[in-house]
Design goal:
The chain contains ten helices and 30 strands. Strands 3-8-7-6-9-10 form a six-stranded antiparallel β-barrel. A four-stranded antiparallel beta sheet has the order 14-13-12-17, with no helix packed on it. It has a three-stranded mixed beta sheet with strand order 1-21-22, covered by helices on one side. It is elongated and about 125 Å long. Helix content is 18%, strand content 31%. The chain is α+β, with helices and mostly antiparallel strands. The protein folds into four domains: 42 residues, no CATH class; 94 residues, no CATH class; 200 residues, no CATH class; 64 residues, no CATH class.
Length: 475
């Protein structure tokens, strides 16, 4: 059975009411003539029969393609690099995404070859008590070998869930940073706060779920400095360290003081090192000493029950009598920070004006004048109920190419230099040597002042040998 529909002229008599056919024959003739005119002039029966095909962009008549372009209102070139039907078939995806940020960016890339940025003025509107304070939770670890001589990269922790068997604690890792100290590298894992379950135990292993070869030991770090005696005469910014351990100690500063200079709060800016990881202490065969809470011990000797406390040094001008106590832990936190300037009256915050600075406005940062695209954008993909603004970016393209890749070097051979030096050697009794290998490209966060640490000072004079130093200077 054919799906073609007959010309309406031929079925008017059968569909018209009988009383109209009997009483108004001239009206029936007029209707038949009108339908015949539609068929002759506009091919009404043809389009009626081809309506399913006309719904497909691939089979549409050219005149309907022109109507689609007129409806979209976009500035499409008259001459296409490809078939117009293929073009509009693809552009329909842009139409379906109408109202989204990606559709606006695609619009400018497609028709103006311009990469634009979308900003929202509402982000700059003052909202009282909307300050967004962020304080990260950091888990510090050292990486362990999962088999002899094989150790994974700590960056592989990013995005994974870590777990500790002893405490059943777990958390998801947001990012990883490495800090190099004179006695090794410590990796700082930023935890996603909402994913932290239970408390992690220091100096116990953690591993990535689903990846047991990714394993590390939690470093026993200085988490806080408890104020036992606030003292007097201190100033904000006074530096706090452990005496004699520059290179791998923590660093803190006085953050707030009272009227008399009494210390009210302390901020740790570098959690440093100062505790030998357990897996190193258990497998060590070369170094005769290990560090525990900034105190050196010799392997084989029992750690005394009355462990001495490290000496805390406060670099101050007029402060005195302060007494601080080191608190250790697994999770540490640096100074908090505001995310943006929301709710801060002294920053670049404005009041709502219900025009530009309002919830339903957005701004397109482009290199084209608004008159070239505003009408087409609003008709094609602009979301209903919103207000669009254009911000024209003006810039110059500079030619920064090199005219020549040749570099001319003038070499000068200097005379031999004679270096004489008399050394002053400071030694202390009961000293230990902190050996380490400086990797290529490794920089310490704190200045390292030597490898020998001592308790009692004595001075010995010595003369250095004369050395001939000859080098080549390249200008």
């Amino acid at each position: 059975m054919s799906n073609n529909k007959p010309n309406i002229k031929t079925i008017v008599d059968s569909i018209a009411p009988d009383h109209l056919v009997a009483n108004y024959p001239r009206l029936i003739e007029f209707v038949k003539a009108y339908f015949e005119f539609l068929e002759t002039s506009n091919k009404s029966a043809y389009y009626q029969n081809t309506l399913p095909d006309q719904r497909s962009i691939h089979y549409q008549e050219s005149q309907f393609l022109a109507q689609i372009q007129k409806e979209l209102g976009i500035f499409v070139p008259k001459i296409y690099a490809s078939d117009a039907k293929i073009f509009y078939d693809k552009i329909s995806e842009l139409w379906k995404s109408k109202g989204s940020e990606e559709s606006i960016k695609t619009f400018f890339q497609l028709f103006l070859d311009d990469v634009v940025e979308i900003t929202y003025p509402w982000d700059s509107v003052l909202i009282p008590s909307d300050g967004r304070w962020i304080k990260d939770s950091i888990l510090r670890i050292t990486m362990k070998e999962y088999s002899p001589g094989l150790k994974r990269n700590a960056l592989d922790f990013v995005g994974k869930t870590i777990k500790q068997v002893t405490s059943d604690a777990r958390a998801v890792i947001d990012s990883v940073e490495v800090r190099n100290y004179s006695d090794g590298a410590i990796y700082e894992l930023k935890l996603i706060q909402s994913t932290i379950v239970n408390e992690f135990d220091p100096q116990e292993d953690v591993f990535a779920l689903g990846d047991p070869q990714l394993i590390g030991e939690i470093y026993k770090s200085v988490s806080t400095l408890a104020i036992i005696n606030a003292g007097t005469g201190y100033a904000i910014g006074d530096r706090i360290t452990v005496a004699g351990f520059n290179g791998f100690t923590f660093v803190a500063y006085v953050a707030a003081v009272g009227v008399t200079g009494a210390i009210q709060s302390i901020q740790i800016t570098n959690f440093g090192s100062g505790n030998t990881p357990l897996y190193i202490r258990e497998t060590n065969e070369d170094n005769p000493y290990f560090i525990q809470d900034f105190i050196a011990y010799e392997y084989g000797d029992e750690v005394p029950e009355d462990v001495p406390s490290p000496v805390i040094n406060i670099n101050t001008v007029g402060g005195e009598d302060a007494e601080l106590s080191i608190q250790y832990g697994s999770i540490v936190s640096y100074a908090g920070r505001y995310n943006g300037v929301y709710g801060q009256l002294s920053e670049s915050i404005v009041l709502q004006d219900s025009y530009y600075y309002q919830k339903y406005s957005y701004q397109v940062n482009t290199t084209f004048s608004t008159s070239e695209w505003i009408n087409q954008l609003t008709r094609a993909i602009h979301p209903a109920g919103r207000k669009v603004f254009g911000n024209i970016s003006i810039f110059n393209v500079l030619n920064c190419k090199l005219k020549s890749a040749e570099i001319y070097i003038n070499k000068v051979q200097p005379n031999a230099l004679l270096a004489n030096e008399t050394l002053r050697i400071d030694t202390r009794v009961m000293g230990i040597i902190q050996d380490y290998t400086e990797a290529e490209g490794l920089y310490f966060l704190e200045d390292y002042v030597g490898t020998v640490k001592f308790n009692e000072l004595e001075t010995v004079g010595a003369n250095a040998s004369t050395t001939n130093i000859t080098s080549q200077i390249v200008e």
